[in-house]
Amino acid sequence: MPGKSNLVEHEAPEKLLTQRGLFAGPSQIVSEDLYAEVKRGIAERERHRMVVHPNATVSMNTYFGRFPASYWQRWCVSPEVELELEVTGSGQVALVASDSEGETRTVVAEKVAGAKAQKVRLTAKIDKFTDGGGLWFDVITAEDSLVVEKVRWTVAPPKTVRPTAVVICTFNRVDDCLNTMAALASDPEPLKLVDTVYVVDQGTDAVESRERFAEVSAALGPKLRYIRQPNLGGAGGFTRGLYEVTEIDHAEHANVLFMDDDVLCEPEIVIRLTAFANRTTQPTIVGGQMLYLLHPNFLHVGAEYANLDTLAPGQVVEGALFNADLTGYDEETGKRNVQDKRVDAGYNGWWSCLIPSEIVKAVGYPLPLFFQWDDIEYGYRAREHGFATVSLPGAGVWHADFHWKDWDDWHRYFNLRNALITSALHSRFDPKMIVRGMAKQFATYILGMQYGLAATQLKAIEDFLKGPDFLADGGVQAAADIRKLRAEFPETVRHPASEIPGFKPGSLPMISAAPTPKLIAPVFAKRLVNQLRGKSVHEAGAVPAGDSAWWHVSLFNTAVVTDASQEGVRVRKRDKELAVRLSKQGAKVFRELYRRAPEMQRAYRGAMGKLTSRDTWSRLYDL
């Protein structure tokens, strides 16, 4: 679908909608308790309407029900927020606030009796939330019921409203992509805020080849821009949206909202991210949060950062919720698991993330990293230029659980290589610290008989040492090469648990791990000596995924380890000759990394401008 979008600033409405009050999710797998909690009695919760029966209490002190007042006070220019809702029946509506410790206070309350589609408006100043706290409303009934609907949280609008483009990057996930497109098309109010939906298809199985594409396209109408291009990974797919938007005349002040193709999309996120971006004091990256798709009540993390000195992504900011059941309560305090304390993120994942066009103009486009760490690098580069990242509570989508993805996969190459690049660009890049950490990882791979993973790590370092020119093709050749390399190692192949090569059904005992050793170093030395001597405690056995630590797996000659995805098993076999060969290669590679680290840091920093330029991406897109 050729043609450019017409992204222009919009005339401001009388009130800027920041979020709606929803009482149920976009899918039946999502608990209504994430939206409205029935604390007493009975209430019927629909998407946009709730019936609270007599003698009942419903609280909107929930993940999607709260207004994140602390974040609005810290980052935005709005002095107050208005809650408007329509009620029918009798009862009380109370606007409630919390502080950073979760202590609550009632701001204002109103009782209605015999109301018929009556408007209730409650206002709160956003002035006592610097360190934390939120706003929500509670509904209480006595002898009669109360119907609540058309709930809107609004603030004073800016002079003009920024245009927004949504960018969906997809690669051979046709049904997932169509589901995400359909979710956006299904809700008219957030869709009205979107000027363009870019679907960047990098796959061989084209989204447009399905019959359903015509239906979804019609629902999105002229907003849809469908683009086919070579597979340049997530970096190349999302950057195409930035590339297109920044080419448009009069789009100097635009929002570009990234959306993964395989999320369960909550369309409400469009309203919440764009409203926040429209009212920040300075252009700000506004990130959506990630809830687990397999466990929809759980939040991945409230805010995260990367330790660039140790190449460790996904570090939890102190005070942030992590792996938290959002419908549960804290065991110590007895309070609902909500993000009362304000926490500041280092970066936000691109499962859903809004980037203002001004930031692109100031810092350039993302690096052509293909996959992994592209979001981290961009977040830290923006920060160095004075642009913050906010992970906004209550703005979330559901994405595949990270801990159900096995670490021993081809993508680990990009994780390691791109971590080195990001660290070289944005940290002191201490050779001693970097090499020590990577060498420890390497040793555990060897002991755990993950020879393909060890080879993957060495390949990542070797390619990093080739310098920035290696990124010239956007990672296309690297993606092919790492798959070819890993195919040489049998333990990288996943087998059905019912068809394990070399073993008859029922012949493998399940051997669970002992407790984690208190003294790691002596255990490490002992396992290493035993492997060199060819000694083992177990000849063969099955190992659950949760027990697959190196100090347990290294006790086996053959370990059949459950894949983290729970979709099969990997067969790890001890190979002393291969272990020695890889170890010698590793020693050579680590020595070179240590010696050449300062040189590589200078090279990547010197090439940053070229790598992130429009010309580079224009060439990669063959435009």
Automatic annotation (TrEMBL):
Pfam families: GlfT2_domain3 (PF19320), Glft2_N (PF17994), Glyco_tranf_2_3 (PF13641). It comes from the Bacteria. InterPro entries: GlfT2_C, GlfT2_N, Nucleotide-diphossugar_trans. Residues 41-154 form the Galactofuranosyltransferase GlfT2 N-terminal domain. Pathway: Cell wall biogenesis; cell wall polysaccharide biosynthesis. Keywords: Glycosyltransferase, Transferase. Its EC number is 2.4.-.-. Residues 434-622 form the Galactofuranosyltransferase-2 C-terminal domain. GO terms for molecular function: glycosyltransferase activity. The keyword Transferase applies. The keyword Transmembrane does not apply. Belongs to the glycosyltransferase 2 family. This is Glycosyltransferase.
